[in-house]
């Protein structure tokens, strides 16, 4: 198994059933790995970290971008799947401008049921990217995707998830309040019954409930 592989044992088991010999690694076709790890570089150490944080340099080649687009087109909803792909994007943060355009183009082409996947991936990249490059590149690109997601997603539950992500971006200062408010304003301008969801209190994560004090005992 490739060092640092984020695939779960279940995902690897499915891969072995569908493709027992795995995929050839981009840099070494003789090395067989899972679908995500084939995009990660083989080199490691401080030199690579410096390269990751350095200047953008040469653009990523067409074959690599084609592979990334293939991964995006087959992304599955699930924390492990999204985090694994987010890791690839964040490793290549010095190419944030080029990869942000890939993300934007993909977001525009998503089917309605894929839009929440797109937002979750964007959210993970923005939250975990410690270079700040994706934040700068995506600030103007994210609003149309977020607005489109809210309008096209069918269920109130999924629309509430869009609202929760917007709330998190503002609270965690991923984007400034003015930008998040502009997204909300664009959603409101379209009208519709679902606009009311923007005014609902944002539900806390279940994990937060564990820290809440116990309820007082009922009176006798």
UniProtKB/TrEMBL annotation:
Transmembrane spans: none
Biased amino acid composition, Acidic residues: 202-212
InterPro entries: CID_dom, ENTH_VHS
Pfam families assigned: CID
Matching PROSITE patterns: CID
Residue span of region Disordered: 199-220
CID domain location: 60-191
Protein name, entry field: CID domain-containing protein
């Amino acid at each position: 198994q490739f060092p640092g592989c984020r695939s779960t044992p279940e995902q690897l088991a499915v891969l072995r059933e569908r493709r027992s010999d795995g995929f050839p690694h981009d840099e070494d076709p003789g090395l067989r790995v899972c679908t995500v790890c084939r995009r990660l570089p083989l080199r490691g150490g401080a030199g690579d970290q410096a390269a990751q944080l350095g200047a953008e340099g040469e653009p990523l080649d067409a074959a690599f971008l084609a592979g990334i687009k293939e991964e995006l087109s087959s992304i599955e909803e699930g924390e492990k799947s999204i985090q694994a792909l987010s890791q690839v994007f964040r490793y290549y943060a010095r190419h944030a401008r080029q990869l942000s355009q890939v993300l934007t183009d993909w977001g525009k082409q998503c089917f309605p049921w894929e839009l929440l996947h797109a937002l979750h991936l964007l959210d993970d990249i923005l939250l975990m990217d410690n270079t700040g490059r994706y934040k700068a590149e995506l600030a103007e690109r994210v609003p149309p995707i977020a607005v489109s997601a809210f309008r096209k997603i069918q269920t109130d539950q999924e629309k509430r998830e869009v609202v929760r992500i917007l709330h998190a971006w503002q609270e965690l200062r991923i984007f400034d309040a003015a930008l998040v408010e502009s997204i909300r304003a664009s959603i409101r301008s379209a009208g519709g019954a679902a606009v009311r969801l923007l005014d609902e209190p944002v539900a806390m994560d279940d994990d937060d409930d564990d820290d809440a004090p116990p309820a007082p005992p009922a009176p006798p």
